[in-house]
Amino acid sequence: MLTGRKITVIGAGIAGLAVALAMARRGAKVRVLERAPNIAEAGAGIQISPNGFAVLAALGLGSELLSAGLESQAVELKDYRSGRRILRFDLTKRQYGNPFVLVHRAHLIELLERAVHGAGVDLTLGVSADPAGVDGSLVVGADGIRSATRRHLNGLEEPFYTGQVAWRAVVADRADPESHVWMGPGRHLVTYALGSGLRNIVAVEERAQWVGEDWNQTDDPANLHASFAGFAPEVRYWLDGVEDVRLWGLFRHDVASRWHDGRFALVGDAAHPTLPFLAQGANLALEDAWVLAICLDRLPQQEALAEYQERRGGRAARVVAAATANARNFHLRNPLVRGVAHGILRIGGELMPKAALNRLDWLYGFDVTCERHGALHQVSVSR
Ligand SMILES: Cc1cc2nc3c(=O)[nH]c(=O)nc-3n(C[C@H](O)[C@H](O)[C@H](O)COP(=O)(O)OP(=O)(O)OC[C@H]3O[C@@H](n4cnc5c(N)ncnc54)[C@H](O)[C@@H]3O)c2cc1C
Q1: Is the pLDDT of residue 360 over 90?
Q2: Does residue 12's CB lie within 6 angstroms of at least one atom of ligand 1?
Q3: Beta strands 375-378 and 178-184: pairing type?
Q4: What is the pLDDT at residue 213?
Q5: Is there a domain that residue 61 lies in?
Q6: Does some domain include residue 167?
Q7: Is 308 tagged catalytic?
Q8: How far is CA 298 from the centre of its chain?
């Protein structure tokens, strides 16, 4: 039972706020320690797919999230230069039971922070926690990719540079309820509207080295323009609107081998940072938060933590592998190989549109809040 139990969470990103809320809703007395002096998110968008939305809805935040963002109708993969459609995932044709929402990160964080306060969580800012010095019988490490809690459990493992950098920008644009992925040699660009007249742009380029001191820095929009000069006029039109842009080196770890030791547990990027090419890092963090809370509510702590890793490890590994595969598939350099691969996808999508749509069911049709016979299960998606 979580009622009355004292739990400390390290980190107030999406994972930390969500796990604090999920546990507080089940009666735990939660305190969150956050290093930053205030909770702020980079000015950029985030895609909350049906599997992540399910958790936010179960935490009572579904309708507020929907009104803060825009419901996506489709995801389209396109050729970078011609703009020709290669594959379309028409989300209206699938009934996942939950929407796919495009939203500004600041709105999501505000929503979670307000809910956490409302649930009586004690949130302390400006405290850099050393896991070894944190007391209490349960400490949750939601401290991101450079997690000190992960090091405490798994020894010294530095995240590695994946050979890719990402620019992130927001420009003014009309509402368009579709996400677009433009795939080119060694680079791709993802863009979607956020509602409230804004469009999010994430542009990824392969680069041998990352030399920035920080892995998140401001960049000159001219560099972004130059890298995507060969892309279709529609893309260049959006890039013309970019005034401020941030550049990130994309790093990751393998999925942690130890997620808990009986007193500490990991959630979110601390356990399984992933490339953003499936837009699942935050969605996985939301799933973790829910599963950890229900395991702790139903089982003695040692069993609960073992059950938590058992339920989450395989799913996280599958998502990380699929996102890594997208890095290769989006960036095919050889024009012949690219032409054949895109042709197969396009013809497959035209001849067997259902099969193309089904490809994402394992991801979006997974609802951790939906239980049968005491076990979490994959919801069946109506066709
Ligand atoms: C370009 C890009 C686009 C993305 N798009 C999407 C998307 O569309 N959909 C999606 O689901 N995911 C997306 N992601 C991934 C997603 O942003 C992350 O997976 C998610 O934000 C991770 O949340 P987190 O809370 O685990 O970690 P973080 O957001 O890193 O939060 C960790 C927190 O812990 C704090 N902290 C760290 N150490 C300490 C300490 N010792 N003491 C106290 N506090 C500490 C930090 O200050 C921070 O606030 C994207 C990522 C990138 C790079």
Answers
A1: no
A2: yes
A3: unpaired
A4: 52
A5: yes
A6: no
A7: no
A8: 27
- What's phi and psi for 82, nearest 5 deg? -85, -20
Question: Which residue range(s) make up the domain with 366?
Answer: 6-159+253-378
Inter-helix orientation angle 14-24/50-58, to 10°: 40
The label of the residue with tokens 């989450």 reads 312
Domain count of the fold of the chain:
1
Instruction: Determine if ligand 1 sits within 6 Å of the CB of residue 36.
Output: yes
Q: Which of 8, 9, 14, 292 to mutate to test the pocket of ligand 1 (most atoms within 8 A of CB)?
A: 14
159 lines ligand 1 (CB under 6 A): no
- Alpha carbon distance 162, 151 (integer Å): 20
Residue 17 lies in a domain: yes
Query: Quick one: which atom of ligand 1 is closest to the CA of 269?
Result: 26
Q: Which residue has the higher pLDDT, 371 or 317?
A: 317
CATH of the domain at 284: 3.50.50.60
Q: pLDDT-derived band of residue 196, with 50, 70 and 90 as boundaries?
A: confident
For the stretch 248-280, pLDDT in tens is: 999 999 999 999 998 999 999 999 999 999 999
The lowest-confidence range among 114-123, 284-293, 327-336 is 327-336
Task: Tell whether 82 is covered by a domain.
Answer: yes
- In angstroms, the CA 8 to CA 263 distance is 11
Catalytic entry in 96, 192, 308, 364: 192
